[in-house]
Design brief:
It is built from 3 helices and 4 strands. By secondary structure, the chain is of the alpha+beta class. The chain has a 4-stranded antiparallel β-sheet with strand order 1-2-3-4, covered by helices on one side. The longest helix has 14 residues.
Length: 153
């Protein structure tokens, strides 16, 4: 991925104008911006960034992304901010063997000293079944039937 490529977070902005500045230390402007940058960090396996943006009260001692799936797209379902607290409801799609799965979470965020931090959230996972005419979850922008479906046996 180059800096000019579309950011994997789905914003349709170039990575250099979207999540890269946050990965380089700029504070996120909102809980949603932090969530998007954390998704890209999972996508790019940036463990240090994930740990740095996780609130110290809830952050695990270690984080391994070795078993992390191949993330393909992010959908923000809802986002809100109220003072120093925020929530983001999202669905992240990943490739699971020859099929697709999703992780859906309602995440909580806290702003301290001008920076947003991820606290935690309620998650659920499941199998994702895109329809033939739905956009392909691989992020190509093509219909599923003309993209990943045609490569299956």
């Amino acid at each position: 991925m180059t800096d000019q490529d579309n950011c994997p977070c789905g914003s349709r902005k170039a990575y250099q104008d979207c999540c890269q500045p946050l990965h380089q230390g700029e504070p996120a402007s909102s809980p949603e911006a932090l969530m998007r940058s954390r998704y890209v960090a999972f996508f790019q396996k940036k463990t240090d960034y994930l740990m740095d943006t996780w609130h110290p009260d809830t952050r695990p001692a270690t984080l391994s992304l070795e078993q992390s799936p191949d993330w393909t797209s992010l959908q923000i379902l809802d986002s809100s901010e109220n003072g120093q607290k925020g929530t983001v409801h999202f669905r992240a799609i990943y490739q699971a063997g020859s099929g697709w799965g999703y992780l859906e979470e309602k995440s909580d965020f806290l702003k301290e000293s001008g920076r947003w931090y991820y606290l935690g959230g309620e998650t659920r996972e499941g199998q994702f079944k895109p329809g033939r005419n739905d956009p392909c979850p691989c992020g190509s922008g093509r219909k599923h039937k003309t993209c990943c479906l045609r490569f299956r046996s």
